[in-house]
Specification:
The structure is a single chain. This protein is mainly alpha-helical and 259 residues long. The protein is 66% helix and 2% strand. The protein has helices at residues 22-38, 62-73, 82-108, 120-135, 141-154, 157-185, 195-210, 216-229, 232-258; strands at 2-4, 7-9. Strand 1 (2-4) and strand 2 (7-9) form a beta hairpin. The longest helix has 29 residues, at 157-185. Residues 88-113, 202-221 are annotated as: Disordered. InterPro entries: HMG_box_dom, HMG_box_dom_sf, UBF1.
């Protein structure tokens, strides 16, 4: 038991008989705030001065609201005024709400959606990281990634090709999987554009302007060739754009499903 502001408070107090919702916790804090304001708004009002009979609401009695207040403020209490503690309690409730919101978002995430393929560079890092970590056990993660980046830059094009080929194979599979995903889940809707689709559309405009005489077939062949030889960092930018488009598309489809 710890003495705080003239009270004996058990920091581990938790209500076992009643469950409090987020809205009820907010109401409690609002009632405390109103009570402090009605008492003149003085910042020198302490917890011992609060009249819990004026805080009660719904079917919560004085003991209920007092205990819940203790539970909410147990981690923030020090020798401070009621108003200061109130601000901390409000922040704690807000943080709790944000945490629950983030959890709901994670729960809503579509686990069946195919994952974007890793770039050649990331495939290389994943392969070499453990080996390098053993060799340089004194390095932290950032330092390790710096070494991996240097090794990648020094790698010959011939050796990079191994990782690039893995990426292309994974990319091909992803395009097939994502197409199948949208056929199964949203058969009546046009699927969102892949990174290659987005980049191709951009490149095609440029090539048509510079080479208006070029046939569609030849243009497509050249575009695919450029894409295959593209540096990882540039390709990653288009992958990000595609990922954003897919996320927006799925969000839109889910909203339509709920209508």
């Amino acid at each position: 038991m710890a003495a705080v502001n003239g009270e004996n408070v058990d920091d581990s107090i938790k209500e076992k008989s009643k469950v409090w919702t987020h809205d009820q916790e907010l109401t409690l804090l609002q009632n405390v705030e109103k009570h402090l304001e009605s008492a003149g708004g003085s910042k020198y009002i302490y917890i011992k001065d609060i009249k819990w009979s004026e805080i009660v609401f719904e079917d919560f009695n004085e003991d209920d609201v007092h205990k819940r207040w203790n539970a909410l403020t147990s981690k923030v209490r020090k020798m401070r005024t009621a108003k200061e503690i109130l601000e901390d309690a409000k922040q704690k409730v807000a943080d709790k709400s944000n945490k629950e919101s983030r959890k709901r978002k994670r729960d809503d995430k579509d686990t069946g959606l195919p994952k974007m393929p890793l770039t050649s560079y990331i495939i290389f890092c994943n392969e070499k990281r453990q080996q390098l970590a053993k060799k340089y056990s004194n390095l932290n993660n950032n330092e390790l990634m710096t070494k991996l980046a240097k090794k990648w830059r020094k790698l010959s094009e011939e050796k990079k090709k191994k990782y690039h080929d893995i990426y292309l194979e994974n990319r091909k599979k992803f395009d097939q999987d994502i197409t199948q995903y949208f056929i199964e889940h949203y058969p009546d809707e046009k699927k969102p554009k892949t990174a290659l689709d987005l980049w191709s559309a951009s490149k095609k405009k440029e090539m048509k302007k510079d080479h208006p005489e070029m046939s569609e077939k030849k243009m497509k062949k050249k575009i695919n060739k450029y894409w295959d030889k593209m540096e990882d960092d540039e390709r990653e930018e288009w992958e990000k754009k595609s990922k954003t488009e897919v996320a927006r598309y799925i969000k839109r489809m889910k909203k339509m499903d709920k209508v």
